[in-house]
Amino acid sequence: MTHQDLLANLPPIPTDDLLPSIREALESSERTIVVLDDDPTGTQTVFDVPVLTRLDADSIRDAIDEAPPVLFLLTNSRALTAKETTELHQNLGKILKEFSDDIIVISRSDSTLRGHFPLETNILRDALGIPEAPTLFIPFFEAGGRLTVDNTHYVVEGNTATPAHLTPFANDNTFPFSHSHLPDYIAEKTGAPVDVQSISLEDLRSGNVVEKLASLPDSSTCIVNATCLRDLDSLSLALHQNKRRFIIRSAASFVQSLGGITSRPPLDPWQMQDLAPNPNGGLIIVGSHVPKTTTQLNHLLENFPNITAIELNVPDLLNSTFDAQGTALDIQTALSSGKTVVLFTSRDHIDGEDNLVIPRTVSQALVSIVRSIKIRPKFLIAKGGITSSDIATDALGVKQAMVLGQILLGVPVWTIGNETRHPGLAYIIFPGNVGGDDALTQAYQKLTS
């Protein structure tokens, strides 16, 4: 189906700007939107927003006491087992329940339907003490071309709109799925009958959202259709006007909408540079294995053969036969000579008995290498959700960061704190599934211009 055909015959999009009213409503409520982000890429639609990676009770309480309009808590739960994320969300829910009147909780996950759903939202509902709360399911993500029409979720690339279950994302090793029609997807993930409601584009564009939210049955799951940010803004304003409690599972765009955050152009090169001149080369780490990442990696290496490319053989990593110190020394030598280094894992698919063993082993190897690099790179890009999270927390020592903005649409940039190995470094978190074939090349060119 073409993108135009998908959007044909839909109700007209209202032209009024709801963002000022959304910001006013959030400010007057004095509440903080707390986003539990299952990997660091969820910050891809916001700027000037704090991110907390240290999730002990005191750190979370201190961060909420600062009363930011939006606060991200990095759970990295897409890299966890069901048991691990259960324990984590039970603990987080217990902490957040203390602030129940002062926060709005969003469970942020992947716009291509991967992640621990409905496990995490069910746990939060119980831990927060709101078992009757409906769940709003909102996978729309504008920058990635993820649209929901007539309760079916699509991935748009170019002029082609493909049902999500026909894309490579549906074949994810850990979170596969076989339906794009979201009532069927929810039934597949739930494994039991569930009360599925929906808010249509007609509802959102006619202004009947407040009544629709009020009429949702207790504990139901409600699909939210959307093809543009204005659709989400209708929902956001209605939620701020509604005293009912909800559990929200969304992709990144809804965080922007509910926070009343305007869209801002991508960052200029000077905004991501070190204050002092840095003669070293940049470091790009590629752990993601989705086909889009491989295409972007190949485009970069084909167009810039002067980049130092270092491949890590995944079977060697699994057999513990690689030399982390030696690899780190090779990288450091290249960086100190002013060359940019791309450190990437071999691209061949490998099956494993435990779907999380391979990505964890690979991530641990990448962390070990980055820890061993002694000099500060000119810039640092981490490609993939698990990779970028583990590099940030385990290799760089990030406990709290600030979202600076985006280098490209959907590609967030953090400024990391003084507690880290490289204070103030611009850290680019590049989702595996975002951008065209040349997106990684564009980011490299921007950082080296």
Secondary structure: elements and pairs:
Layout: H1 3-7, H2 19-29, E1 32-37, E2 49-52, H3 57-65, E3 70-74, H4 82-97, E4 103-108, H5 119-127, E5 135-138, E6 146-149, E7 152-157, E8 160-163, H6 182-190, E9 196-199, H7 201-206, H8 209-214, E10 221-224, H9 229-240, E11 247-250, H10 252-258, E12 283-286, H11 291-303, E13 308-312, H12 314-318, H13 324-336, E14 341-345, H14 357-372, E15 380-383, H15 385-395, E16 400-408, E17 411-416, E18 426-430, H16 439-448
Parallel strand pairs: 1-3, 1-4, 2-3, 4-11, 5-10, 5-11, 9-10, 12-14, 12-15, 13-14, 15-18
Antiparallel strand pairs: 2-16, 6-7, 7-8, 16-17, 17-18
What does this structure look like?
- The chain is an alpha/beta fold and 449 residues long.
- It has two domains: 3-258, Putative sugar-binding, N-terminal domain (Rossmann fold); 269-448, Molybdenum Cofactor Biosythetic Enzyme, Chain A (3-Layer(aba) Sandwich), CATH 3.40.980.20.
- The chain is built from 16 helices and 18 strands.
- It has a 15-stranded mixed sheet, with helices on both faces.
- Helix 4 runs parallel beside helix 5.
- The radius of gyration is 21 Å and the shape is globular.
- 47% of the residues are buried.
